[in-house]
Amino acid sequence: MSKGLLNTCEELYGTKDLYELFSIDKKASEQEIKKAYYRLSLKTHPDRVPEDDKQTATERFKVLSKLYSVLTDKDKRALYDERGIVDDEGENEADTWKLRWQNLFKPLTDEDIDNFMKSYVGSELERTDIKKAYLNGRGCINYMNQTVPFMSCEDEPRVAKIVQELIDAGEVPAYDAFLKEPKAKRDRRHKKYAREAKLASEVKRQRDEESELSSLRKQLAVRNQERKGTFESMIASLEARYGAANGDDDEEEFVLESAKKSRSSAKKAKATTPKATNAAKGTRKSARSAKS
After folding, report:
1. How confident is the prediction along the chain (292 residues), in pLDDT tens digits per residue?
2. Alpha helices in the chain, H assignment, sequence order
């Protein structure tokens, strides 16, 4: 038995309450837990954060995977509900968190993320996440940028309006860290965001170029294969048409020799019968004269 996982959860997510973290009811079904896990995973997936934040994102992702295994295991969940502790013994960090994601969900694509963003931004779910991040970070906008999905410097005016509505409604306190943020701190955040956006654009450009190059290589490989097949087919056709005659020299020589011998025999036969031929001509001439 261990409370280490819950302590790590509090350090990374600001709470030990798993149901609060997943934004679900204590009687939530396994399907509801799965949906919540997927939504939270999108926030911290290591492939979706800048290089400098990958280590932290990886740790958050690992912890989230373990917490999901607690809530979807009947015995572990009952132990947590009853005593507020989790059994995280026997977990192999090297393979469980990645395999669990791969087994539960298909590989993420840019289209998947874009579709989720369209349904998320401006939704009640985003409002809930903004409220939670505001409270957990005590109004720190840097913290909110890191924990609210898809939030960037460009979204700050829109998010500030939502926070002000929450303050006016008495749902959250008015933190000076949010309402009176120093200009120097804001400028540093915006410069960092600009650098990361430029880097992300460059990475995307390189990835697109690599993808295009890979596609071109595949096309060239297919064309070369087609040309090779065409050439081999042409050679086979030529061999079928001319190969037998060119490959049977003995037979060709025999045929030519036979033809020569036939012509020679004919000449000799003609040379040895001139008298018989003349006699035949004289007979035919006498017969014509008699008729006359």
Report:
1. 345 888 888 888 888 899 999 989 999 998 899 888 888 887 777 777 677 777 888 888 888 888 888 898 888 888 888 888 886 654 444 445 555 555 555 666 778 778 888 888 999 989 999 999 999 999 999 999 888 888 888 999 999 999 999 999 999 999 999 999 999 999 998 998 888 778 777 777 777 777 777 777 777 777 767 666 666 666 666 666 655 445 444 444 544 555 556 666 655 655 555 554 555 555 555 555 555 5
2. 4-13, 18-22, 30-44, 54-71, 74-83, 96-104, 110-120, 124-136, 141-147, 156-168, 176-179, 183-247, 249-271, 274-291
Cα distance between residue 10 and residue 92, in whole Å? 21
Question: Which residue in this structure is represented by tokens 């954060």?
Answer: 49
Domains and CATH numbers, the chain: 5-104 (1.10.287.110), 110-181 (no CATH)
